Amino acid sequence: MVARDCEMTISQPEFLRLLPAAVAGAPFDVSGGVFSSHCHGQRGWRIALTPLPDLTHGLIRLERQRVVFAFHGYATDEIAAFFRRFDLYFARGGG
């Protein structure tokens, strides 16, 4: 089940740096741009990053990723809680 498909302005190394706190220290595997966690084979999540063309504005260049989240064996409220925590750790200030 895909729960979210979005674009993020972030590099893969920066994503990897922030991910452990965003998933509350849950263990996960990394293979290329895919991050996955499996709990006893019955529950798991998968986050796949695919590089997109950089976003440029004048001299500013920002790396972008397509980010696809998939969950197996989680209730809707658990997925919502996952995204609340994830969004807190990946939120960017602006304005």
Give the key terms.
95 residues; alpha+beta; Ribosomal Protein S8, Chain: A, domain 1; 5 strands; 46% strand
Summarize the structure.
The protein is of the alpha+beta class and 95 residues long. It has helices at 12-22, 76-90, and strands spanning 2-8, 29-31, 34-39, 43-57, 60-72. It is built from two helices and five strands, in the order βαββββα.
Please estimate the helix content. 25-40%
* Main sheet overview: 5 strands, antiparallel
The 3D shape can be described as elongated
Mean pLDDT, all residues: 92
Outline the structure in words.
With 95 residues, the protein is an alpha+beta fold. It has one domain (2-90): 2-Layer Sandwich (Ribosomal Protein S8, Chain: A, domain 1). Helix content is 27%, strand content 46%. It has two helices and five strands, in the order βαββββα. Strands 1-5-4-3-2 form a five-stranded antiparallel beta sheet, with no helix packed on it. Strand 2 (29-31) and strand 3 form a beta hairpin. The chain is elongated. The termini are far apart.
